[in-house]
From TrEMBL:
It comes from Clostridium fungisolvens. InterPro entries: Acyl_transf_3_dom, Acyltransferase_3. Keywords: Membrane, Transmembrane, Transmembrane helix. The chain crosses the membrane at residues 12-28, 56-75, 96-117, 154-176, 182-207, 219-236, 265-283, 295-316, 336-356, 395-415, 559-581. Residues 4-353 form the Acyltransferase domain. The keyword Membrane applies. This is Acyltransferase 3 domain-containing protein. Pfam families: Acyl_transf_3. One of its GO terms (molecular function) is acyltransferase activity, transferring groups other than amino-acyl groups. It comes from the Bacteria.
Length: 596
């Protein structure tokens, strides 16, 4: 499909918005959470941005919703234009490989930086938890199928993108030619209500509508109200949910009405993105604007920028800011850091686009053309001919499809492949918590009851402020743990703990709130708050110390080591392709026989 320049342009602008968002969260968290204790500018300008449509300049979640709307639109556009089933077959076949190669590149790049750069341990904790086997597992399976993104946290969207793509393909294949597919759209909207997959359905709906010229709006009297509605819904604050966490709660902002109708930001961001793209495909002047060279360039590198920008922010921006801040004020230091960081991100993104992103498209096309086309006969047309003539063969094909699907599900979900990759027997500690300030948390540990805490047995990880529950992971270089001590930064504050989990080889044992309340608290006042333990401290050294954990020894099921993982991957895909070739050859012979 020929690229639509203005859609690429708005995708590029959305990617830039994500970059700005992550920079803001690191250096101006008040712009995101409206917490008055984290303000770095004079007056209330940061609060103003956080609680008004001005936050659209850096609203990362809204930008992600634009990505998903565009995916639904673009992935179905050619099908609705041609009503050719082969479009769905080819797109579905190529999708995994299209996403895999950039993801693999990104994860291996992060792996190399974590293991080789001095700041790797500073920002990611103990390096032993970031192994090559884990990087390969996440790249091929974990990220796309399960949403596991230990190395590059920005890749949490990839599983949604991957699964959402197949929702689009399935919808088009089943309902795409039906005259009553509006009913299917309504059912899909209900099913995926208030989830990211709703964006794919709405994007596909836009693509469907745009194939009919009569469903267009030209008059400004209709466009302007929609534009302002899009601005209003799209700018719903992401991290202003609890009044206690901020200077104000969401109910005291201009978004209280929206929050009354549907609570939370996700639905409104999807609605805003839907309206914005609808306006864009109807207004020629906007299309011309987003087709400008600068936006076209950003669109080209948007995916590459998305998968690499956090690498620059984590390994360069933070330390560079600290260096500049020794000579300049906070705001000037942040500005200089942002400009140089953005330039570096673009410098990295362009070759990534040129050598990795473009290659992934070519590679997926080569695989499809080689394995799904024989003597210019399309696999899809052969199947159609094969199944339309003999009812017995249709039943056999359907039965084979069901059996193949079940085998695939067994391999992906029922057989715990994701449990096998652990050659690492070490323990990890996960703290499920709500944090209101950027800081560093430290975890001290002992291996026996008689040991005492020391600076030689400590893991430090950075934490970011958020009103959402987040997992803070400490990777420990030990196989058993007796006691732990968690230090909650070096400044006063409020934080919430939901639970603590001890993990080994993907097996977990949970330390509940009831257990945690019996711990020793230093410079902390603890109280129960719904499903959380609320910890308040006005001192400089707040920490908790566990009792003897008495964690049962978690056996490590090490079915696959590094070499076995690589061998498994090398054998799996050729096997799949061999089976596809055999099926294709069989269908081709039937086709020739029936038409001779």
């Amino acid at each position: 499909m020929k690229k639509i320049k203005y859609l690429d342009g708005i995708r590029g602008l959305a990617a830039l918005s994500v970059v700005i968002f992550h920079f803001v969260r690191n250096f101006y968290p008040t712009l995101d959470n409206a917490n008055i204790n984290q303000i770095h500018t004079n007056g209330n300008i940061e609060i103003l941005f956080a609680t008004t449509p001005l936050n659209l300049l850096y609203n990362g979640n809204f930008a992600v919703c634009i990505f998903f709307i565009l995916s639904g639109y673009v992935l179905s556009y050619k099908f609705f234009a041609t009503k050719n089933d082969e479009v769905i077959v080819s797109s579905a076949f190529k999708r995994y490989f299209r996403l895999l190669i950039p993801v693999l590149f990104s994860v291996l790049l992060y792996f190399a930086c974590i293991q080789s750069l001095p700041t790797g341990e500073k920002y990611f904790g103990n390096r032993d938890g970031f192994t090559l086997g884990k990087a390969l597992y996440e790249s091929f399976i974990g990220i796309l199928f399960y949403g596991e993104s230990t190395f590059n946290s920005a890749l949490w969207t990839m599983s949604i993108e991957f699964i959402g793509s197949f929702i689009v393909f399935a919808f088009c294949a089943i309902f795409g030619k039906s005259n009553k597919r509006i009913i299917a759209y309504l059912l899909a909207i209900i099913i995926f209500w208030n989830s990211y997959y709703l964006a794919f359905i709405l994007g596909m709906l836009l693509s469907d509508i745009s194939s009919f010229d009569k469903f267009t709006i030209k008059k400004a009297i209709y466009i302007l109200p929609l534009f302002f509605l899009s601005i209003y819904t799209s700018s719903f604050p992401t991290n202003i949910n609890i009044k206690e966490n901020s200077t104000i709660g969401i109910d005291l902002t201009i978004y209280s009405f929206l929050n009354y109708i549907v609570k939370g930001y996700l639905f409104w961001h999807i609605v805003g993105a839907f309206i914005l793209i609808f306006i864009l495909i109807n207004v020629k002047k906007l299309q011309s604007f987003f087709s400008l060279k600068i936006f076209e360039f950003l669109g080209k590198i948007s995916f590459s920028m998305y998968i690499t920008h956090l690498l620059v922010i984590i390994f360069f921006s933070r330390d560079f800011f600290e260096l500049v801040h020794k000579h300049l004020g906070y705001n000037y230091s942040a500005l200089v850091t942002f400009v140089i960081s953005l330039g570096l991100i673009i410098v990295i993104s362009y070759p990534t686009y040129y050598f990795v992103d473009r290659f992934s498209v070519k590679f997926a096309n080569i695989l499809y053309n080689h394995f799904f086309k024989v003597n210019n006969f399309k696999f899809e047309s052969i199947i159609r001919s094969f199944t339309s003539n003999v009812n017995k063969n249709r039943i056999l094909l359907c039965f084979s499809f069901i059996i193949t699907s079940l085998i695939t599900l067994v391999f992906i979900y029922l057989v715990p492949i994701r449990f096998f990759y652990y050659s690492n027997k070490n323990i990890s500690i996960e703290l499920n918590s709500i944090i209101h300030k950027n800081d560093y948390y430290q975890l001290y540990y002992t291996e026996t009851n008689s040991d005492t805490f020391s600076d030689s047995k400590v893991v430090q990880v950075p934490v970011m402020a958020s009103t959402e529950t987040q997992k803070i992971k400490f990777n420990l270089p030990i196989e058993n743990i007796s006691k732990l001590r968690i230090d909650f930064g070096s400044t006063p504050g409020v934080f919430y703990i939901k639970n603590i989990e001890v993990i080994k080889a993907n097996k977990k044992e949970s330390i509940t709130l009831a257990d945690i309340t019996n711990y020793k608290f230093n410079q902390i006042e603890a109280s129960k708050d719904k499903n959380y333990l609320k910890l308040m401290s006005n001192e400089q050294d707040p920490f908790i110390v566990s009792n003897n954990l008495n964690i049962k020894k978690i056996n490590n099921t090490n079915f696959l080591n590094y070499s076995n993982i690589i061998l498994f991957i090398l054998c799996l895909f050729p096997s799949i392709f061999y089976i596809l070739l055999k099926v294709q050859s069989f269908c081709f012979k039937i086709y020739i026989k029936e038409n001779s």
